[in-house]
Amino acid sequence: MNKLIWLSIFLLSSSQSFASERIYLGTGNINGIYYQIGGELCRLATNSSLNYRCAVVPSSGSIDNLALLDAKQINFAMVQSDWAFQARNGLGFFSGKPSHGLRALFATHAEPFTLVVRADSQLHSIEDIKGKKVNFGQVGSGARQTAMTLLNKIDINIRDVQEVDVTYPGDALCKGDVEVFAMVSGHPNKTLVDTAKQCAFRFLPIEGAVLSAILTNSPYYQKSQIPPRLYPGNVKPVPTFAVAAILVTSANTSNEQAYAITKGMLNEQTNFNKQTFAYANLFRLNRHRTGKVLPIEQHPGAVRYFDELKQSDKL
């Protein structure tokens, strides 16, 4: 990451001016969900009286965050669970370069795989996209990688569709330049909120045998849904699968610091800003933030916090 980006770090203000240790949390684009949620987590950690001041670092997303973490330019990072799994095990993009020291603290929210079509579309299932104009995201993006994984599971070749490269998929959908586009995101999502102002849309379900196929042997995918009543006309939940956004750190982070940050962020959860995008998919219960939703080893400091919750019957 260009060092000049550090000039744009947003240091969250705090009434605890005595906070002595600064930590850095890698997030995403400043207009994106990771930046918003990371900012809220930083605010909660800074306000928790645990002697830390948290600063949000914008980035291009999961892969950038993992590189920054490996380079010790940040202490913590928001990362998709599938990217975390691959990085830890040296798979896919990280083939031959496993990050054995990558550790999870907790999951923050679900990011459902989302296929968007116009409300008047004749497409009703993933199998209907053959021969259609689609946008699965930029090459190398998490959304496109997930879409390719799904197509492979149901024996649809990428050559069976017409991929269209667009900058603003919502605009392209409403204009008819694409018939379906994919995204991996918590909800509500700003892109979809803006799209709803231009045209009516709905979501294609991922269910039945297709859902079973994508969940098989994929520890980083979970059964999920797109919540209802977040967008005009979409009044019922839509079944799909999701990755989890997880907060990660390094095994070199001390147990005490990992414990303090986890506690500081989660003990203040009732003060989370409900206007944050993806709020509908936040894991509000502690039991949903740990366990199988984490596809990599959990940091001992975070384990200590969740063990304390178990002992007090709060998990």
Structure write-up:
It is a single chain. With 315 residues, this protein is an alpha/beta fold. The protein contains 9 helices and 11 strands. Strands 1, 2, 3, 4, 5, 6, 7, 8, 9, 10 and 11 form an 11-stranded mixed β-sheet that branches. The radius of gyration is 20 Å and the shape is globular.
User: Class by helix and strand content?
Assistant: alpha/beta
Helices and strands, in order, run as EEHEHEHEEHEHEHEHEEHH
Number of helices: 9
The quaternary organization reads as: single chain
Low-pLDDT sequence parts: 3-19
The largest sheet is:
11 strands, mixed
Q: Distance between termini?
A: 38 Å
DSSP strand tally: 11
Q: Percent range for helical residues?
A: 25-40%
What is the average of the pLDDT values?
90
Q: What's the alpha carbon Rg, rounded to whole Å?
A: 20 Å
Principal-axes shape call: globular
What percent of residues are in strands?
A: 15-25%
Write a brief structural summary.
With 315 residues, the chain is an alpha/beta fold. It is 29% helix and 21% strand.
List the helices and strands and how they pair.
Elements: E1 10-11, E2 21-26, H1 33-46, E3 52-57, H2 62-70, E4 76-80, H3 81-89, E5 102-118, E6 133-135, H4 142-153, E7 162-163, H5 169-175, E8 180-184, H6 190-195, E9 201-203, H7 208-215, E10 222-226, E11 238-250, H8 255-267, H9 300-311
Parallel strand pairs: 2-3, 2-4, 6-7, 6-8
Antiparallel strand pairs: 1-3, 4-11, 5-8, 5-9, 5-11, 10-11
Helix pairs in contact: 1-8, 8-9
